[in-house]
Write a structure and sequence with these properties.
The complex is a heterodimer of chains A (131) and B (143). Chain A is mostly helical. Helix content of chain A is 81%, strand content 0%. The model of chain A has no long low-confidence stretch (mean pLDDT 89). With 143 residues, chain B is mainly α. The model of chain B has no long low-confidence stretch (mean pLDDT 89). Classes of the chains: A mainly alpha (131), B mainly alpha (143). Chains A and B meet through helix 3, helix 4, helix 5 and helix 6 of A and helix 2, helix 3, helix 4 and helix 5 of B.
Chain lengths: 131, 143
Amino acid sequence: MNDVNSTRKMRSALGQVRGYGPAKSGLRHWRAQRLTAIALLPLTFYFVISILVLKGANQVAIRAYMHEPWNAVLFLGLAVCLFYHAQLGLEVVIEDYIHNEGRRVLLLLLMRGSVAFFGLLATISILKLAL
Amino acid sequence: MQDVRETLMQGRNSDGQPVRRPLSPHLQVYKPQISSVLSIFHRLSGVALTGGAVVLALWLAAAAESPHTFLVAQRLVDSFAGLMVLFGFTVMLFYHFCNGIRHLLWDAGYGFDLSTMHRTGYIVIGATLVLTAVAWAVGFAIG
C-alpha cells in the first residue's frame, strides 16, 4: 500500500482509458485569470481616473491624451488584460452552464472570436490615436 | 454500454418521475444567503462588464475614426439612457473590483472562516457603494 505507484493512482483503469479526470491544463487557466486580475487592479484605478479626466473631452483632447506614451502604454495594457480576463471568465461560465457539447463548443468559438475582435479593435484604435 | 456519468445522472423528482439530475450549480434549491448572492453577482457583473469592454472598444474606435464619429458617440454616452448604462457599468466595475480583491485574498488563503467571509462580504457591498458615489460625485463636480 505504501508503494508510490499505488498511492499516486487516483483514477480507475476504466476512467483512465476513457480519458476522465483533469486535462492537465487547468492550472494555466487559473493562473492566467489571477495574473490578469492582479494586473487589472491598478489598471482599473488608472482607467477610472482617465475617464474622469477625459469627461466631456472632444476627439482632439482624446488624441492628445493617448499621444502621451504613458497613457498609450497603460491603455494598451488595460485592453490586453481586460479582454484576456473577459475571455477566461466567459469560458468558465459557458463551460458551467451549457451542457450540450455541440452548442458549448460553438458558443466558445463564437465568444473567443468576438472577444478577440473587440480586443483587437480597442488595441488598433489606441495605437491609431497614439501615433 | 451506458456512460458511468450518465448513470449517476439518473434521479427521480418529488412526484417519483424519473429525471436527469441537473448539473452544478443548481441555484434554485438554495435559500439566498450573502455568500451565494455575492458569488452569483460576481459572475453576473463579470459577464456584464464584458459588455462594458465592448462599449469601451467601440468608444475608442469612434475616437480613432474621426472627430465627427466621436461626436456621435459622445452624444450617445451623454444621453439619459447612455448615462444610466454607464452608471450600471460603474456599479458592476467597482463591485467586481472589490469582490475580486476578496477572491484574491481567498486564493492566498486568507478570510475563509464564516464570520470573516460574511464581514468581508458586507465590506465589499459598502466599498462598492462608496466608490460609485465618489466617482459620480467627482464626475459631476468636474462639470
